[in-house]
Amino acid sequence: MKGHIRQRSPGRWAIVLETRDSDTGRLRRRWHSFAGTKRQAETECARLVAELTGGAYVDPSREPLAAYLERWLEHIQGQVAPRTHERYGELIRHHLVPLLGAVSLAELDAMMISCAYAKALKNGRKDGQGGLSPMSVRHLHRVLRHALKQAVEWRLIARNVADLVKPPKVERKEMQTIDADQTVAMIEAAKGTIMLIPIMLGALCGLRRAEMTALRWRSLDLDQGQLSVVASTEQTRAGVREKETKSGKGRAVALPAILIDELRQHRIRQAEFLLQLGVRLTEDHHVVTGEGVSPYNRTR
Q: 95: which DSSP letter?
């Protein structure tokens, strides 16, 4: 068994591994693409020859990356949340496939991925109005790394070339917050509107939007001044679904007196509104209702 390298273009090499078929004696060649210096290509060639000799060699797959990513999406569907799966599909079909989909798993290398990320930063938006943000490209990188890790486990490729690529740096911006006076002003402005309870739950209790929309009356104890966050919602193509909280664990939140009073009044208004529709309010009803199902019929 032996191997050698051939230069295809500056910085790009073909690694050729040669073996003899044990039955026919015919020479068989295996080709690998590599990006880097000549010395790096020689080192990689030596590594592949050692793997071939030791029986650890993985014959690289000629399957196009686009086809493999579709197979991978199908594989992980039951392993991630529906919205996460949809997001992976969007990143793959709208960005990774147009950039790299025609390349085979065997030919994919770190330089190709780096060039694809640079292109995405420059003009990667679907509407053609500029490039993706560094954070979006980092999301592409995470998905590609995850997918190629599975390809290694399936022995379609010998190593995950995405591990050799550094995604763009994201500049952290200082979070903008509002002070106590601004919070009071916001609550006052929301009184008499459908937004009052969501604003108070967010500002005074720290609930996320998805947690608010999953909150049911059975999770509130107004006498004890406490609520339990046990679920959240997510929007998918099939509609809104309820799921466990992000951490997978519930948490108890103390209710300020001002919010307890507003919740008592809100419950009365909601019960009266539902009664007009011929529905009796139960502990299973959501605290925060959507537009068109509002107990508020006026604005301030």
A: I
What domains, with CATH codes, occur in the chain? 2-54 (no CATH), 65-164 (1.10.150.130), 180-276 (1.10.443.10)
Tokens 């909280």 belong to which residue? 245
Residues 224-272 have pLDDT tens digits of 999 999 998 888 877 888 887 766 678 999 999 999 999 999 999 999 9
| Long-range contacts of residues 152-158, Cβ cutoff 8 Å, at least 24 apart | 155/58, 156/58, 156/60, 156/61, 156/63, 156/68, 156/105, 157/58, 157/60, 157/61, 157/105, 157/106, 157/108, 158/48, 158/51, 158/57, 158/58, 158/60
Cα distance between residue 78 and residue 99, in whole Å: 27
Question: CA distances (Å), 274 to each of 35, 201, 213, 285, 293, in order?
Answer: 67, 22, 18, 10, 9
